[in-house]
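We read letters as residues; the integers encode the fold. Take this protein.
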Amino acid sequence: MSADSIRPSSSGIAEGGMRSPNENKYWSRLDHLRLYAALLVMLAHVWAYAGGDFEPHTTGFFVSVIQEGHIGVGLFLVLSGYLFTSIALDNQGTILYWRFVKNRALRIFPLLTVMFFVLLCVGKLQFSGDTVLNLLLLQLNVGDEISGFGQKLFPVGAWWTTSVEFQFYLIFPFIFLFVRKQGPQYLVGLLTVFILIRLCLFAIKGDVYWLEYHSIIGRMDEFLIGMLAACLHRSHRARIDAISLALLAGSLVLMPVYCFWYRDIPLIDAVFSFTLEGIIFAAFIVGYQSPMLHIPRFADRLLARGGELTFSIYLLQAPIAEALARSGLLPHISRSTTVTTLFCAFVIMLPLTVLVSKLTFLYIEKPFMDLRVAYFKRPDIEPVRREQGAPPPPVEVESASWPLQ
């Protein structure tokens, strides 16, 4: 890609970049946000593998963001809901369901499958032939209390989130259909249902945070809030853009506040933590796209390039961190916890992870990403298809009539 192939505007919208065939424009700042989310998770992994303490969650106000860096998962999920809804609203067409699912499979499964077979390699004495069903049936978020399937044998890290993500992808076209028919209030109603489910689980089981943490029962709030943010931003763009910097500043203040205190209140921890994460990150996403926030072109390109690699960074950082720790190359967390963690993450971990991720992106991810197809049926081209005798379109999820301003 040439130096001029990305031309960001004041809102971070650029031509070029790694976009799908369904995006009318490339939002470089959303790639920035992907990178920030991956770095948050990396800080948490470095903290863990370098010997940092996770209990109690009172190490220090600002250190809590490092200690609780796993909230980067929430940023990823809110961003997914926001991005797919924004793309769907921009296209104003019908989502072709199986093409949509095919695109998501091409994006996620190639590298995930390689990682899964690495796990089978090291765990061949523990696994049987039906183990592959955990991959095929999207059950990588079971089998371990604080991580995903296989964690006891290999540092799989955050790969459990791919199962939760794909479960959402399977139902996103239907949720978007209902939003187009009923309006954004449908998202509010569905969000209320999931909050009530968790309230019931809390009343029956008590502390269920980590069970919900790895499940769509907990994480659905973040997808739905991302979708709601996209709808509201689209309908009230001028008013929201006017307060976008305030939203950005407020979200940055609330992140450490949330990380420091949310685990101290059982009801908040088990029932409302994912809702609060979703609201904070939705404000962060919308605020970061502020037309009043200037990002130099060099920084925009650099962060966007990093954003391209985030799926590889996300999946590979845990095994790389453990390899470094076992090799003695990851210093143990000392009394200067913040400085040590930041040094380990950005001086030791990040360069190595980016290097490996660049290779896996180029030779595993990107060839499959180039096979993605358009998954919207636009009314203006369907008559031409019929006149030319084209075959019937794939199974589709009809869009309807929520009025957009």
